[in-house]
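Quick one before lunch.
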Amino acid sequence: MLANEIFDRLKTEFGDAILAFDDTQPTDPFIMVQTDKVFDVCYSLRDNDEFQFDYLMCLTGMDLGENVGVVYHLYSMKFKHKVVLKVVAPKADPKVPSVEMLWKTADWHEREAYDLMGVQFEGHRNLIRILCPYDWEGHPLRKDYETPEFYHGMKVSY
Amino acid sequence: MGLLNKLDDPYEGGGIVLGKVEDLLNWGRSKSDWYLHFGLACCAIEFMAMNASHFDFMRFGTIPRTSPRQADFIMVTGTVTFKMADRIKVLYEQMAEPKYVISVGSCSNCGGPYWEHGYHVLKGVDRIIPVDVYIPGCPPRPEAFEEGMMLLQSKISKQAIFNKRKKLEAEL
Ligand code: SF4
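Model of the iron/sulfur cluster complex:
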């Protein structure tokens, strides 16, 4: 199934929760999804007999200035089709529903996006830092991140 | 160190070596250093080449140990992140004296490629533990490892064991 067909099916199923479809970019075509509906959309993509997206290839966090974004790359082993979903959330309150219950891959990927980009995945059962130390402050890959001066008494930058 | 060369010049009857106990002990110490390998990043991959048969690190008398208690020196090979820096400190403190440190690669010497933007990298392992030998490179060639090991051996074989304070004062 092509990405625009998937978009049409999702549009009939979820209506306004599916915001836009974009295949003008040089990247894979992607579907913008309303942030609080992303779990339901992903649930349908995984379990609907037509889609069967059983593989989350990658989950990415993005810094978009005012907002943070999350990108989902999905793949179906059976039908060999793929789709890209994107959601955005304001930086002040970066809450995105977790898909950790749907794909085990999302467990560590969401922890990474939380650790480095500060996306709060709601419903994740173990949302703790994965790369930085547990007592690290801030989310280092955000563009407005300020490097701390000291960590445990060790100077950071010279 | 030439301890065995003295056998070429034997006293009557032969087989007698005259030397200082300190030299003998240092000779033994420098020729059988067991090390705690602390592989952290790509330099540790180069160290695998060093350990393999082509360069054969063990001909220096080094044996890799997995416990700091049994190690004479620690080989810090790679990027020392702050998360690891805490652990390195603990491991170093767990080693028994006398203990030595070899810092391998630009990362553990000075932060290397992470000098400017590495919010997570300690800018040189010598900021938390004292380093005896620095091996430069990104990563160093196995030949550089060999030279570093020989430098450490020559350092050990010159060290004072008895009357340390007296000898130090004489040097100053
Ligand atoms: S010095 Fe270079 S090769 Fe060694 S750990 Fe750092 S980046 Fe990797």
